[in-house]
Amino acid sequence: MSKSDPPPSYEESREQQHGNYPFPPYGYPAQPGVYTGPGQPGIHPQAGLWQGPGYYPSAMPSMMPSFITPGIFSCNLRDAGGISATGVWDSMSVRHAFIRKVYLILAIQLFITSSIIAVFTFVEPVRLFVVQNPAIYWASFPVYLVTYLMLVCCEGPRRRHPWNLILLFIFTLTLSYMTGTISSYFDTKAVFLALGITAIVCIIVTIFCFQTKVDFTSCTGLLCALCVVLLVIGIITSIVLSFQYVPWLHMLYGACGAIVFTLFLAYHTQLLIGNRENTISPEEYVFGALSLYVDIVQIFIFLLHITGSSSDYRCCGALLFQ
User: Fold this and answer.
1) Cis omega before residue 8 (within 30°)?
2) What is the C-alpha to C-alpha distance for residues 274 and 267, in angstroms, rounded to an integer?
3) Which band of pLDDT confidence, cut at 50, 70 and 90, is reported for residue 187?
4) One biological-process term from Gene Ontology (predicted)?
5) Distance in angstroms (rounded) separating the CA atoms of residues 181 and 307
6) Residue range 137-166: average pLDDT?
7) What is the pLDDT of residues 230-262, one digit of tens each?
8) Beta strand extents in 23-170 (DSSP E only)
């Protein structure tokens, strides 16, 4: 190039290549320790540490690939081989392990509850003892209430192992005893029928929640309003039944309660899935199991009021609320 020739433009200088390294434009100041092309002073950099215009002075590119950029993970993103991005698989694996842990704990809780209900239903001396001594039921109520509030309201005991499992085990035993006490007032056939219907309802709701696009987690306000309505109906029902037994009112209350807690079961199930508007942390496996367990037990109790007839409603009184 002669001195009269004008220097090449920046775009033209960018097109000059030597191997895989672009040259800087003429007149660009050479930097110490930077390879600037043949005939230019400089030192060859180490492999993988190319430095030059438009590049960060490290191995990190100026823009990270979109599939590993924090905050934009999506289950629909896949790499060239058709496999989801690493972050997506990590998230899915953690969520799946969380769901398995919750349902394993729930299965143990339901087994304990079913065993206690069977003892209170089939062993006649135990059944008579529970019916004749309702004070034991009310003595277990404070334990139920304290453990429930600790697990729901206190994050420390709920997440600290093994105290969270110990509290959950105490809560399960207490609620199982209370549920067995209520079942002892009903016929054996009614108890079995309520158990069967509860199992069918829980299976259908679980499958539906994993398949449907309906988001129950966005209906928190509606569920709270239904709880208030159920509470008012329960108070009226308890007052009326304390004076005179009205079968249709008793069944109406049981049906309303079963519907409300079925919706709660769908709500808490979708909280576990993690792909809805609201979700719970994978660390909250105790809270997840507790929520599902309480919903299932409540559905069973309300169905029990529909399928069976109590031998003495004045004795059980406020057991309608449990």
Assistant:
1) no
2) 12
3) confident
4) negative regulation of apoptotic signaling pathway
5) 17
6) 89
7) 999 889 888 888 888 888 888 889 999 999 999
8) none
Cα–Cα distance for residue pair 186/306, rounded to 1 Å: 11
CA dihedral 223, 168, 103, 110 (to 10 degrees): -90
Count of residues making up the chain: 322
CB 298 within 8 A of CB 182: no
**What pTM does this model have?**
0.68
Q: Which amino acid is at 36?
A: T
Distance in angstroms (rounded) separating the CA atoms of residues 67 and 85: 7
* Weakest mean pLDDT among 24-28, 84-88, 244-248: 84-88
Strand partners, 22: 17
Structural contact between residues 43 and 62, judged by C-beta atoms closer than 8 angstroms? no
Two structure tokens written together for 293? 């367990």
Q: Which is it for the CA torsion 263, 268, 273, 278, positive or negative?
A: positive
> Which of 172-176, 199-203, 268-272, 277-281 shows the lowest per-residue confidence on average (mean pLDDT)?
277-281
Answer yes or no: is pLDDT of 150 > 60: yes
Give the pair of three-digit tokens for residue 89. 């698989």
Q: Which of 275, 282, 277, 278 is nearest to 74 (CA)?
A: 275
Burial, 290: exposed, middle or buried (Cβ in 10 Å; 0-12, 13-18, 19+)?
Answer: buried
Q: Tell me which residue has tokens 């043949």.
A: 38
286 neighbors 168 (Cβ within 8 angstroms): yes
Round to the nearest angstrom and report the end-to-end CA distance of the chain.
95
Helix (H) or strand (E) holding 272: helix 247-273
Residue 46: Cβ-neighbour burial (10 angstroms; 0-12, 13-18, 19+): exposed
CB atoms within 10 A of CB 51: 13
Tell me how far the alpha carbon of residue 142 is from its chain's centroid: 27
Among 252, 238, 262, which Cα is nearest to 321's? Answer: 238
pLDDT at 80: 31
Measure Cα distances from 215 to 180, 228, 280 in Å: 34, 22, 14
